[in-house]
Amino acid sequence: MKIILVFLLILQPILVYAASSDQKDVDNFEEQTNAILSLMGYSIFPDVTTSSLSIQNGSTGDPGFVLTQFAGGFTISDNFPLYLEGGIAYSRYDPTIVLGDAVNETSFSFKWNSLSLAGGIGWDFELTEKLVLRPMFNFMAGQIESDLSVAGRFADWILDTNLDAFDNGRMRAYGLGGTLMLDYEDYTPEREIDAEFRLGDVYMEGFHDSSDFALGSANIVTANIWGRYRAPIGFNLLKKPVRYVLEASHSEFLGDQRGILGFNSLSSVGVGIELDSSEYPVIITRTRLIIRHVFGHNVSGSSIGLSISF
User: Engineering a disulfide at 255: which of 79, 142, 221, 250 sits with its beta carbon 3.0 to 4.6 angstroms away?
Assistant: First the structure.
């Protein structure tokens, strides 16, 4: 059984909220809620290209958006090839909101938080000894809430009040879709090769308990190709060879998230080291530390990623 955990981090600016009876502002609200859902779509699929993406606010130099995700997946066994994956993501963003027309224009700041859960259930069909076809059903659920709404919840709990006015700063979302994967594994004592191609499509929709209509929607489509090469360095640690790791990945964003951050695709390259602890009675069999560089149109950055296998 193999389980891989991935830590993902992305930073970006976003416009998110409008509160006006003017039709233009209503349209802007719908547009921005669609944008929120599109950005949440980056956390549906495990993807190392978004693990080192950092985009700052051009006027302040500070990040306008921060997202952290922990995700992983595994096949239960060769005899029962059910594949399961899941992830949890938290994001916080500080938007600039502009309402009104050119004459009476008002701008103000809200800070928003979101928490989302994503998962997938698939089945491995063996095409060859080393190649597996893996169709998968994907789902997600999340909530977006402003600091103002969080403060209202806290006041309700501490002061036993009912501040309904804060409810407007809250929205829930769900998503359903599927993924088709090709997974290649070629392991020998001299080296280990992993490669994956993935095409995922998930439709997301926002809703609110007190509303009769959905608050925005987004279609998230991502194509990703990823590969990893591992080989012994030449000495042992923990009774097993220490391996060096080379990694490369490329993602194309084909759905509503395409271009929302100013790019349509991201690539990453990485180098690292792997320790094998399988000789000891511990649940963790391998630990990898990888330094990655990510790049795309007007985007570049670096990160340190930690992955573990069970």
Answer: 221
